[in-house]
Amino acid sequence: MEKNNDLENLPVVSICCTTFNHASYIKDCLDGILMQETTFDFEVLIYDDASTDGTSEIIEAYQEKYPKKIFPICSKENNFSKGVRGMSFVYNIPRAKGKYLALCEGDDYWTAKDKLQRQVEFMEKNPDIVFTFHNFRRKEGDSLKNPFLYPPSFNKDVYVLKFKEAFNTQIQPLTMLFRKVISKPKELNVLNGDALLIALLLEKGKGAFLNFTGAVYRIHDGGIHAGKHKYTRISNSIASREKMLKYFDYPVKGELYLKLAHYYKRLAKLDFKRGHFFKGMNHLNWLLKYSFYYITRK
C-alpha cells in the first residue's frame, strides 16, 4: 500500500504570528521561532496588518530566505482599525496545516530552543491534554524581569490545572501549544482574545503547565493593552466577556459570570476611590447580578 506523501509532508506545528508596526521587534520574534530544534516540521504563518514602519519588508526578507517555512500575508489595509479582532483566528488558524498550534505576536519572542519539542512530546503522550503552557519573563524597555511567580503547586515538572483554576491563572498565549480543535464564532469580535482562546480550549479538555521558562512578553507603548489605564483594561475585559456569554454553556459560562463579578468589583473600588459614587453603586449592582446568575445558573 502506497503512503500518502501529502500527509507525510504536513507540518506538526503551525506557528501563528500577528504583527503591526513591530519593526523594532519582529527579528527577535522570527529568530526565536526559527531557532527551534525539533524532530518534526513546523510552519510559520504571519499576518501583518498593514504595517507602515518597515515590518513588512523585514518579513519579506525572512520569507525569501525561508520560502518553505514562512508564509506571510501582508495586508494592504489595517483591519484592526475596521473593527476586526482576533487576527490569528481570522487570518492564520484557518490556513494552518499542523496538528498543533502555537502563538507568538510580533513584539514577543521565544528563548528556549526546545520549547516546541518539549510541548509536542508531552502532548503526544497525553491525549487528554488540550493545551500546555510554560513560564515566561516580562520585558519593559531594556529591563528583563524575573520569571513569572506561579503558585507553589506549580513547582513540579508538570502540573495539570483544575477547571476553575485555569480561569484564574496567568496563561500567556505566547507560551501555549494547543491542539487544532477550536474555531472562533464568526460574528464574535472581542479585544481580549486571550480570554476567548482559553474558554474555547477548556470546552474541549484540560490544560497543563510545563515547568520551564521559554519566552519573553514585551511591554511597550505600542501594545494593544500596554500603556492603557487600569480602568480601561478592566472595562475591556468586561466588554469581551459580556460578548462571550451567549456563545458558551456551563461550566464555562459560570466561570465567565464569576470573572465578570470580579471585574465589576474592581471597577467599583476604583470608582469610589475617585469619588464617583453613582458609577460605583451601579458597578456593585452588576457584581450582584452576575453573582446571582452564577448561583442560579441563569
From TrEMBL:
Keyword Transferase: yes
Keywords, comma-separated and alphabetical: Transferase
Keyword Transferase: yes
Record protein name field: Glycosyl transferase family 2
A GO molecular-function annotation: hexosyltransferase activity
InterPro entries listed in its UniProt record: Glyco_trans_2-like, Nucleotide-diphossugar_trans
A Pfam family reported for this protein in Swiss-Prot or TrEMBL: Glycos_transf_2
Database matches in SUPFAM superfamilies: Nucleotide-diphospho-sugar transferases
Species annotation: Cyclobacterium marinum (strain ATCC 25205 / DSM 745 / LMG 13164 / NCIMB 1802)
Domain called Glycosyltransferase 2-like: residue spans: 14-179
